[in-house]
Amino acid sequence: MEKILITGGAGFIGSNLALKLLTKGYQVRVLDNLSNQIHGKNPENTSPLFRSIKDKVDFIKGDVTSEIDLKTAISGQDAIIHLAAETGTGQSMYEMKKYCDVNIGGTSLLLDILTNHKHSIKKIIVASSRAIYGEGKYECKLHGTVYPDARKDKDMKRGDFDCKCPVCNEPVSLLATSEDSKIQPTSIYGITKQNQEQMVLMVGKSLGIPAVAFRYQNVYGPGQSLNNPYTGILSIFSTQIRNGSNLNIFEDGKESRDFVYIDDVVDATILGLEKDDANYEVYNVGADKPIDVITVAKTLIKNYNSQVKVNISGNFRIGDIRHNYADLSKISSKLNYLPKFSFDKGITEFCNWVLKQEIQQDNYASSIREMKEKGLYK
Fold it and tell me: Which of 34, 68, 251, 319 could anchor a disulfide with 161, C-beta 3.0 to 4.6 Å?
């Protein structure tokens, strides 16, 4: 395989992946609609991601919901890495049609073309998400491995944010979430990622096109958008700190995520492209360690040498999960993937990059107002 199409290839993961593939001798084509939310109103000037690839790849400005754009992009390619998607968990809870049209509709259109038209595609990789697991995997002292239901409003309103055993409602202990864990997304975004993954794997098998799904954890690193208020607490917090704004942390600040550095995500994705052992399989991609939000906030404040304050608000968003981190046993044993970046190393690289960027306008408050208006922020 020499010619690779990356849908959403001007985005954070896509642009980094494209640049790495070019160094390995691949020819790369990118299909991207250059969304204002990610790239700004004038991507030539406002999007470092787009500028980093525009003269190095075969770039097509287009949309995965357009049959003409997809057919043009697929023509002559050997493999597809399907990253194009709307990606804000909170935003998905009040822009359902948009998320379903792009994520589910765009993927089904892509697969429809592969099924009904001539092409030369020999592999397809789809970006899935840890969001499909919902609250993930836990252990109950009485009932062993359990998968808690979405947390209840009444509990969180009184400051009880922890997950409970779905059988006895007693406290549970966090476990690493493996690929065979129960799938129970708690957001529209998570549902759409589950649908993307299932469709690509099923149709790939029916057509004899090897398919691979990667369930990415919270991806971060130099180059990620600093002005998109809907995704990525590292960029949201960074922009707030650099604007001198105090940080308002949801729940009790002890909620945690698995932060995986962009270079590790790129390496894992290329392993999926190049290794036959990856075919028709699903893999977690993470850093194998949960980091709580208070630690994230304090680390960023320290790295930016800032004096802003941290407010533990007790507020919460509908659709958010408490904890999640990836069990990497499968991807480690089958694809020989191990993350190279610890959180300390990765966050240092990220902060050093942020300090070289212009300070962006802080749009986070407007996104919270939108959620309040919809009854999704408590």
Answer: 251
Which ranges of the chain have pLDDT less than 70?
Answer: 230-231
* Average pLDDT value over all residues in the chain: 94
**Owning domain of residue 204:** 3-135+176-222+258-289+320-346
Closest CA to 5 of 138, 377, 17: 17
What lies within 8 Å, CB to CB, of 90 at 6+ separation is 187, 230, 317, 319, 320, 367, 371, 376
Q: What is the pLDDT of residue 89?
A: 86
**Tally of domains within the chain:** 2
Q: What residues act catalytically? A: 189
Domain of residue 33, CATH code: 3.40.50.720
Residue 290: φ, ψ to 5°:
-85, 140
Backbone conformation region of residue 8, classed left if phi is above 0, alpha if psi is from -120 to 50, else beta: left
Side chain identity at 154, as an amino acid letter? K
List Cα–Cα distances, 220 to 14, 224, 262, 335, in angstroms: 13, 7, 6, 22
CA distance 212 to 281: 5
Whole-model pTM: value is: 0.95
Beta bridge partners of 31: 7, 60
Cα four-point dihedral sign 140, 194, 296, 311:
negative
Q: What is the pLDDT of residues 287-305, one digit of tens each?
A: 989 999 999 999 999 999 9
Specify the pLDDT at position 23: 97
Same domain, 165 and 18: no
pLDDT at residue 38, as a whole number: 78
Tell me, rounded to whole angstroms, the distance of Cα 301 from its chain centroid.
24
Check whether residue 78 and residue 210 sit in a common domain.
yes
Q: Check residue 90 and give its pLDDT.
A: 84
Q: Are residues 329 and 190 in the same domain?
A: yes
Whether residue 356 is contained in a domain is answered as no
- Note whether 74 and 164 are same-domain residues: no
**CA 292 – CA 101 distance, rounded (Å):** 33
Is residue 233 a part of any domain in this protein?
no
Residues 59 and 200 reside in one and the same domain: yes
pLDDT value of position 227: 77
Query: Are 214 and 142 part of one and the same domain?
Result: no
